[in-house]
Amino acid sequence: MEENKQPQAAQPQKVNANLPLQQAIDTLQAEDTPENRKKMLGIAAVSRYLVPVTLTPPPPRHEAGRPIAQPDTQMAIQLLTNKEGQKYFMGFTSPERLAQWPQRQKGDIVMPPFDQFAKLLGEEKCPAEGLVIDPFSKNVTIPKSLVLNLQQGKERLRNIRSITKNDRGVI
User: Fold this and answer.
1) Cis omega (within 30 of 0) on the bond before 57?
2) 115 neighbors 151 (Cβ within 8 angstroms)
3) Which of 36, 63, 78, 87 is a Cys-bridge partner for 28, taking CB atoms 3.0 to 4.6 Å apart?
4) Which alpha helices (H) appear in 16-90, and where do they start and end?
5) pTM assigned to the model
6) CB-based burial of residue 15 (10 Å sphere; 0-12 exposed, 13-18 middle, 19+ buried)?
């Protein structure tokens, strides 16, 4: 016998906090050592972040409120400007940390990986000077040069793993 099932409305995606990165930042800020810095940067380099964006023109929405991608929709990442006029990407580790942003408006959020920040920062026309993780709370700044160096290290490691995998573990 077949049950009469009602279609379910799309549910908003639940976003969990990036607790390993938050803990690494807390540890680093409690005791700034090379080991703690290396650990925090290692976790940051493999993390995804909540990033506020502006979609133009505003796209139609699913019942749950998520935007429906349209061919003409353009996405602009909202940047943070410091007192010196330098612009930075913002990456939040949780919805709670995002809510601490004083200028937070209802809007859209994307969750790009660290690699995407590196790609954007590597572009010649990129106005950002780096990435600020959890501005308005823990506030860790990773300058553009360090983001790019971390990304190059990740790519070298991928290449080494690819070579050893193709050669069945023999270098």
Assistant:
1) yes
2) yes
3) 36
4) 19-30, 34-44
5) 0.79
6) middle
